[in-house]
Amino acid sequence: MQIDANRSDQPVIVMNRTFDAPIDVVWSIFVDPKHVKHWYGGDGFSNPVCEMDVRPGGLWHHVMRLPNGMEFAMDFVFIEVEKPTKLVWQAVDHETRPAGGPPSARMTVTLQAHGQQTHWQLVSQFKSFADRDAANQIGFAATIAQGSNKLNELAKTLRG
């Protein structure tokens, strides 16, 4: 996985990797809650709740449980949905979240077909450099990298 987490020109974290499955399989793993609950989050994380209405303006309610048992409820809204190549979402309160709180980002996933593999890019656009740096400090990219490894393993079993 390639991670660019410290760009000096924009408050973004950009991640790239290739999944070992065709684009239609990877897309379904990204948008079907029955799959998302198996890969979302880092190693040892679980997802007891995952409800998704994947359309522009649709909501995604998610509860993520950390290995220590602590749970975080997250509510997102889908901004763009272009099956099977683009998915954009952000926290419901992204625009109004006060500075100094948990960092929030607009997440843009793009998928490109490469035969039986799929290139994935995630651009996480933060509201400020301080938010991006705070996300780096709490292991944002490492958690996503671990989740993408789980997603790739699931993709290999579903590629049929």
Summarize the structure.
The chain is an alpha+beta fold. It has 4 helices and 8 strands; from the N terminus they run ββααββββββαα.
Pick out its properties.
160 residues, alpha+beta, eight-stranded antiparallel sheet, 4 helices
Structural class: alpha+beta
- What is the oligomer described by this structure? single chain
Distance between the termini: 24 Å
Total number of strands = 8
Low-confidence stretches: none
- Principal-axis shape equals globular
- Spatial order of the strands forming the largest sheet: 1-2-8-7-6-5-4-3
Distinct helical segment count: 4
What is the string of SSEs from the N terminus onward?
EEHHEEEEEEHH
C-alpha Rg (nearest Å): 15 Å
Tell me, rounded to a whole number, the average pLDDT: 93
| Sheet having the most strands | 8 strands, antiparallel
Task: Work out the strand percent.
Answer: 35-45%
Helical amount among residues, as a percent range?
Answer: 25-40%
What's the structural blueprint in terms of helices and strands?
Blueprint: E1 2-4, E2 12-19, H1 23-31, H2 33-39, E3 46-52, E4 59-65, E5 71-82, E6 86-91, E7 105-114, E8 117-126, H3 129-137, H4 140-158
Antiparallel strand pairs: 1-2, 2-8, 3-4, 4-5, 5-6, 6-7, 7-8
Describe the 3D structure.
It is a single chain. The chain is an alpha+beta fold. The chain is built from four helices and eight strands. A hairpin with a 6-residue loop joins strand 3 and strand 4. Helix 1 packs across helix 2 and helix 2 crosses helix 4. The two termini are 24 Å apart. The mean pLDDT is 93.
